[in-house]
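Q: I have 617 residues here and want to know how they pack in 3D. Can you give me a structure?
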Amino acid sequence: MSTRASTQALNPLIGIYFGIFVASLTGIVVLLLIFEQLGVVEARLRQILLFGSLALYAAIGIAGLTTAPAEYLLAGRRVPPFFTGLALTATALGGTGLAAFTGAIFLIGLDALCVPMGVIAGLVATALLIAPFFRKFGAATVPGYLAMRFQSPAVRAAAAVAAAAPLILVLLAEIKIGVLAAGWLLAAPDTVLVLLVAGSLLLIAIPGGSRSLAWSGAAQSITALLAILTPAMIIAVMVTNLPLGQLSHGPVLRALGRSEIAQGFPLTVAQAWLFDYPGVEPRPIDGRFATPFGSIGAAAYVLTALTVMAGIAVFPSLLGRVASATGVYDTRKSIGWGVFLTGVIIMTMSSIAVFYRDVLMHQIAGTSPVATPAGFRTLLDLGLATVDPNATRLTASNVSFRRDGVLLGLPILMGLPASLVFLLAAGVLAAALAAAGAALVQLAAILAEDVIAGPPTEPRAPRTRLLAARSSVAVVAILAGLAASVSRRDPLDLVMWALALSAGGLFPVMVLSIWWKRLSAFGASAGLMAGFAATAITLVLAVAGILPIPAELSAIVGLPVGFGVCLVGTLVSPPPDRAMLEMVRDLRIPGGEPLHDREVRLARQRRHPASRERRTR
């Protein structure tokens, strides 16, 4: 029985299919604008957009139905670079990034860019150090790669724990932010919204696994891009007479700085280790927008960017996305597209934050609470902003904003049609579903392939593997929905903790496994467990207030511990055999058969020599 992955050519009509999707989504939005002008109630408009977009994603997921394990786990390794880049963008940012980063930039200014900058740097780092080699190896999961790289069940078990923990946190965070976005579109209890989000994930992921996720994730990323770019372009034209707000908000930023000085915004300098990133509770605008290190200290800024970079570079769901690329060269192209699209979104979020502050400075600040514009009163009614009840004049200190609602606040304040505000909410939901789906499928693959299955060189029958993978998707989605319904943590906190655990646990071993041939199985397993444990313990102690460092920076302990233990453990253990050294050498050669497939094929030939003789005849 052949163990090679499917080599089917890509459907040449894929561009037409996604053109139909974009046309359908655009048609829904245009219909909503027409219905809005005809006086249809807003509740009906929100429902049409919510269920219409979810129906499109579910249709794409069901259309990806497959019975081949290589398709279910790796999307057949034939996803083109642009579509892989779309999926990487949605997975790296997620709904949490779209909502939380925009609000954080608005509230504390350029200090908030330490996290988005780390995301961009992480994509660049994985393109240079990890992702192409992971794609050349051909494994479906990070534990599967490390297990075969070191031929060690201990490494496999340690990697499964270190990879599963951050995936669980991201899955919970994205379900929670998806529930928040769905709540903007559908007035229903949180229990119903959790069922809606979890059910959508099941419809998308169960039929085709990674294959369904590749195409539905690309569609969701397109939705998120259209959702954030369309209102931003309209507002940019209204403010600067140019459609590219990302490139034209410089004069607005300079005028904003003068307004902040005139209104007495304080000029503060934070302590080096201060990490005052905005949370979910409403808070006023803090300091001047363009003044650095007012809410986040210089040391914390740099270490946060490095922690996020290391976590993104080895995050299991992102590596699972690049594993479906058509080749090593296309993996680099995919990440290039991901960097470009992620940069466009981050620049758009920054321009939205600048425009929002500028509008507030000119329309709201200094006015009476009873004489504010209609748009601001709508923000108050929706709970996106609050005013000190004792205030007689509105200032930056007595108006508080919800971080995750800032993305919706600007179009409301500018008086844009409600349908475009609903489109933004649908974009956040789409990004949340894409990131949650990637974490769900990767977590289910780890459960099915690395926990339930035997050694990676002994794959089971295709029907058994598919049953285990589909069952794992269902179980993980149900448990994640239940956990998200009772969790009260900030989704951004969960994502930052996940990146810290990924950085401290996986980054040292993944980098050394590619770039240091001498690394042994004992050193790898010891480094995995030590780095992950040091990060986890530091994180718990920091959350409890015992350690005086931000919990988001707990990887600054785990990273050096992981590298050091890998080094010491390798030096005190016997060197790897020649076969393992040859595997690392082949790993660095871009072309050729994926190493995972080759090792599985050779192992089967060794166990079944008779079948090998028949094939040679």
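Q: Anything worth noting?
A: Confidence is low (pLDDT under 50) at residues 1-7. The chain has one domain: 14-491.
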